[in-house]
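$ ./design --mode recover --in tokens.txt
reading tokens...
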């Protein structure tokens, strides 16, 4: 349908009962007025770039309903259509060209916004989108940035960060603030956050990537508690109230990580089957881990008061036990054992299991360590539940013997003597 459109005629055109009505303008080739049943009036253009195929596009609205004033006049619609058709005759798709310019302009603006991000903003985004999702102790990462990095570099755009800025920060932390191995932790956290920024194209290269470790005195801890030290810590724990007493004993009897034990919910325990099932989301290995409960471990759990249905080690029932620093201070003072950490208990359990002739593979599975070879990772699907149960049962008996001085007459190899390492 085609006719010469006029202002008067446009006012008289009514929406169709259903569907749409297309009216071509006889005066300007390619211009079409489209009217839909819901009262929208749109200007469309039909054109064919030289050497290409025919196209159709909306170039504006005449009005959005029969009662609203015109948004794009007939004269403007004809002028716009004339430009588009004329460009098409020369082989130019004017609408596509304009759209490309708009996209490029938008991209430049977005790039400018992204590249002007301060380290404060990048770190906040990194914590929210990465650390909270992937790190169980993300709050420590957040505090590390807040205390040591952001006060000095937070307001600086990440694109302006230089390697010298990172080195100066780390030098100050080590030589002016007196930080030791923690300087390397801060460096690693900053490097990870800036890698996050590089992936999102907030900057082109990570200035922290080429910075070497500042603190050279860091060595892996090798501290293993002797039988006498293990006994002293256990007997000190025995003098404490619950849940402190049970928490220490469960770490010793199971060899699991401190926070995995500390935040243990009752729902993970099957006391009848003597099993503790750690879900993937609550352990460092990110895989389900089943811990058989020895008789000694079950006795510890059964002695605990049940304050609510959620956490095992709790003082009020609503939150997991949170007094580990004070607990460690008491254990140090009363047991007289020095230079040890809660994590050293895991190394002690591993060494103790080895002394009981438990295989290296079973020890790794008790501790939920990652499998390092292809066969273990992809082919060996055995759950080792019986072997883990036997290992932890033997360890439970050994701990009982140690703390009750029942070692006499038994052929038990003493645990490796402790070696000092940095805290």
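writing sequence...
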């Amino acid at each position: 349908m085609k006719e010469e459109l006029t202002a008067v005629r446009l006012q008289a055109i009514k929406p169709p009962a259903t569907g749409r009505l297309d009216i071509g303008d006889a005066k300007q080739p390619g211009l079409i007025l489209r009217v839909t049943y819901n009262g929208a009036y749109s200007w469309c253009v039909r054109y064919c770039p030289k050497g290409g195929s025919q196209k159709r596009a909306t170039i504006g609205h005449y009005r959005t309903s029969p009662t609203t004033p015109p948004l794009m006049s007939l004269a403007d619609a004809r002028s716009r259509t004339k430009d588009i058709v004329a460009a098409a005759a020369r082989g130019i798709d004017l609408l596509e060209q304009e759209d490309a310019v708009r996209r490029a302009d938008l991209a430049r603006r977005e790039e400018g916004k992204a590249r002007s991000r301060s380290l404060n903003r990048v770190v906040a985004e990194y914590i929210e989108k990465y650390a909270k999702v992937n790190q169980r102790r993300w709050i420590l990462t957040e505090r590390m940035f807040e205390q040591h990095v952001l006060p000095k570099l937070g307001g600086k755009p990440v694109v302006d960060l230089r390697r010298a800025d990172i080195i100066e920060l780390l030098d100050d932390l080590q030589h002016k603030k007196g930080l030791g191995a923690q300087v390397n932790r801060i460096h690693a956290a900053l490097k990870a956050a800036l890698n996050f920024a590089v992936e999102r194209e907030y900057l082109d290269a990570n200035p922290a990537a080429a910075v070497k470790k500042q603190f050279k005195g860091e060595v892996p801890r090798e501290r293993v508690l002797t039988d006498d030290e293990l006994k002293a810590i256990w007997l000190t724990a025995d003098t404490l109230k619950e849940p402190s007493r049970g928490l220490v004993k469960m770490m010793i009897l199971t060899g699991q990580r401190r926070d995995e034990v500390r935040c243990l919910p009752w729902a993970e325990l099957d006391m009848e089957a003597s099993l503790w099932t750690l879900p993937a989301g609550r352990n460092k290995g990110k895989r389900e881990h089943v811990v058989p409960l020895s008789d000694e471990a079950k006795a510890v759990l059964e002695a605990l008061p049940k304050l609510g249905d959620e956490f095992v080690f709790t003082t009020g029932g609503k939150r997991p036990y949170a007094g580990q620093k004070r607990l460690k201070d008491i254990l140090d003072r009363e047991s007289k054992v020095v230079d040890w950490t809660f994590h050293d208990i895991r190394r002690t359990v591993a060494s103790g299991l080895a002394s009981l002739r438990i295989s290296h593979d079973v020890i790794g599975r008790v501790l939920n360590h990652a499998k390092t070879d292809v066969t273990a990772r992809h082919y060996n699907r055995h759950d080792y539940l019986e072997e883990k149960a036997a290992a932890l049962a033997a360890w439970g008996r050994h701990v009982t013997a140690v703390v009750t001085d029942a070692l006499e007459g038994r052929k038990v190899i003493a645990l490796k003597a402790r070696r000092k390492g940095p805290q």
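exit 0
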